[in-house]
Amino acid sequence: MKYTVSTLCLAMSLLVAAVTAGGAEWEYLGADKNGIPLFYDKKNITESDGIIKIFQKQAYPEEMLQRIGERFGARYADLKKIVNLVEIDCESRSTRTSSVTYYDAKDNIIETKQGDREWTSIPYAHASASNILYELSCPAEWTHITSSKEQDYFLNARRISSSTSDVTFWMKGVDRTTSLDTEKDKFTIRCNNGTYALRYHVKYAPDGTASTVKSYERLAEWSKIGNDTIIGFFRQVLCTDGLARKDIREHLNYLTQK
Known about the structure:
single chain; 8-stranded antiparallel beta sheet; 42% strand
């Protein structure tokens, strides 16, 4: 069956309207390359055949919204919000913006436009919004590594990338009393010299919402890994003889069966 552009846009408008009616739960994601704050709707993430669909909002300042409205014409004079429907293919690690929806001050849809047809790859070592959405939204495989008195710490076995001596991974902390996530962190460990750098940090409030989101990709500071530290236990799992472990899947299976 073939669909016209107008039919697709109508379907996208109905989807966005349904989300608006059901209420969104916007959580801070970070900022784009121009410093514009980005949010994603954590309440209305859907998945079908490995494709994740996420609503992303850009918090443009008033003067920028005014310029966009002036460029698009009188119909956009009351423009207040722009929401993108982002699709992420978790298997191929690619993304596209399937629609862009413009809202007025009363939260009514002005127009929904079709987005990109082509998929683009999501780079691994990059603090882009698409990369963070991929990391936070695509299926994870959390494997327990170690515990403190108050928290359990897990490694996402699906998100490990490595070179000869460097290994980058996601870790999360879980409160042992409430079983709620307390933090998610992206780290790089240099196995050859025993140092690490924090790349990305999400801290969760007791109600499960993200209270702090920070990217350190451009300002990563390398620190020595201390003995008997949480990051030290991760190093023991991910490194061997000063090199990034290549048989990490087999090693994790071995550890979980001990």
